[in-house]
Amino acid sequence: MTKENSNTPIIMWFRQDLRIHDNPALNHAASSGKPIVAVFIHDEISPNIRPMGAAQKWWLHHSLESHANELETRGCKLILKSGAATDAIAQLKTETGADAICWNRRYGDGEQSVDADIKQMFKDEGLEAKSFAGHLMHEPSLVRTGSDMPYRVYTPFWKKFCEMGPPRAPYPAPEQLKPHQDQVSSDTLEDWKFLPTKPDWSKTIAEQWTPGESAATERAKAYMAADLRAYDTARDLPGPDRTSKLSPHLRFGEISPYTLWHQCHDQRHTADAKAREVWAKELVWREFSYHLLQEWPHLRSENFNPKFDNFPWDRNEAALEAWQRGQTGYPIVDAGMRQLWKTGWMHNRVRMIVGSFLVKHLLLDWREGESWFWDTLVDGDPAANPAQWQWVAGTGADAAPYFRIFNPILQAEKFDKDGSYIKRYVPELSDLPTQYLAAPWDAPATELKKAGIVLGETYPKPIVDHKEARERALAALQASKEPKE
DNA sequence: CCATTATTGTC
DNA sequence: ACAATAATG
Q: What percent of chain A has pLDDT over 90?
């Protein structure tokens, strides 16, 4: 095959795919034989693109640093540009004389319309613009029901996903990259001010996480070898916490879902079929979220199920703040919210509990919770975060025929039996015997005293009564169903 | 009788 | 998923 323009550069536009391995667009750029201009654009201007949350920015800073180093060892510099992506790409095209561009597809209406514009910009000049599937194993728009409709329920989506055949094997990293050598203007990471300063809340997060492709790869390997086998039985226990912690790495594409799918299924000798399937199903929940986002671009702002449009959400700043700060008086809720603040992450079981509590017990709008998570989670994902919040609120894609109201006391007793999770994040309760940890207000006065706890002083009294809150939520649901005058 | 366990209806 | 109710021992 002749490569007519092998001396003119190709732009490799990195977005949510900060990896060398299994990166189809990068492989395309490498095999084109053209000098590669690698770029990342920080775009907070283009319409309908959600500005990143603070914790994600912390992650992205370090992930870009790591990715730039990876590229550097292959002789390639990562160019940083900011502003509207169409302008940044146009400028880069002029600066470098590039006659081709490639990227891995992203999802969401704002992102896709920017990408379509840029593709058009290249096509109009007879230049090449190619996009690849790398973020998801099956294109969300191609997973359809028998009557050619998008799925609204996970289980049939999962079945269809399986029928569509196993995801392709991951691609190897390109053997070599031919870098573009000329000087190109670039921002610095410091220009973007992604790291918090006054106050710097990132220290406890940095202790937990190492952003970047090599850390992601190591974590995946270690997880598959050690803990995958216990996933189906242990995944609901936030105390021992045997989850993979791969979510932020996946969020920024430091490791690909194809790689993880195959690593999981290759683990036949250590993990049984059940454990492997349950874990793979979680990976496909991510795909389902993108499927929903694709079909319902306003997933983060509008009820998926319009029947909830009349739901009488409360507005209560004090209650919202108590929830955000982990001061609700329900230890399992407070432990979760404090884990989130401290580490930028929360165990999934606890996400469901705190989400249900915000929406059902406090009657606060799920969008308040979604926004808080978006700002504080290092794995805040444009599809998974709204999809999960809508699921827990009952407004989303959920097959349950009833209005799910988690009981935070039962949930704590069931999933944090030994109280290790609560004690870790709510240390003011750590001297209370385990049996009282789920509901300290029911502990005998003598036990509270022995543990040095004064409810309302050293730890809050519950801000709502469970039974009353439950009844109030059910009444609100009824009220939202009354036909409007 | 009480505490634990199984069943069932709901949203 | 929960909670009211029934069954068990």
A: 95
Spatial separation of the C-alpha atoms in residues A421 and A429, rounded to whole Å: 11
Q: What is the C-alpha to C-alpha distance for residues A286 and A462, in angstroms, rounded to an integer? A: 34
Please give the single-letter amino acid code of residue A325.
Answer: R
Of the candidates A13, A158, A374, A389, the residue annotated as catalytic is A389
- Tell me which residues from 374 to 403 on chain A have a beta carbon below 7 angstroms from nucleic acid strand C: 402
Does residue A405 fall inside a structural domain? yes
Domain identity same for A107 and A26: yes
The answer to whether residue A345 is catalytic is: no
Which residues of A spanning 433-472 put their CB closer than 7 angstroms to strand C? 466-467, 470
> Which residue, A435, A430, A383, is CA-closest to A109?
A383
Q: Write down the residue that tokens 């000087």 correspond to.
A: A183
- Active site includes A370? no
Nucleotide minimizing C1' to CA distance for residue A406: C1
Last residue of a domain, one of A134, A156, A184: A134
pLDDT in tens, A445-470: 999 999 999 999 999 999 999 999 99
Q: Structure pTM?
A: 0.97
Does A55 share its domain with A114? yes
Domain boundary pick from A260, A295, A330: A295
Q: Is the CB of A404 under 7 A from strand C?
A: yes
- The string of pLDDT tens digits covering residues A5-23 is 789 999 999 999 999 999 9
CATH number at residue A11: 3.40.50.620
For residue A357, the 8-state DSSP code is I
Which candidate in A348, A413, A441, A447 is catalytic? A348
Contact A370, A301 (CB under 8 A): no
Chain C positions under 7 Å from a protein CB?
Answer: 1-3
pLDDT tens digits, one per residue of A376-418: 999 999 999 999 999 999 999 888 888 999 999 999 999 999 9
| A103 given a catalytic annotation | no
**CB-CB contact of A264 with A280 (8 Å):** yes
Residue A158 annotated as catalytic: no
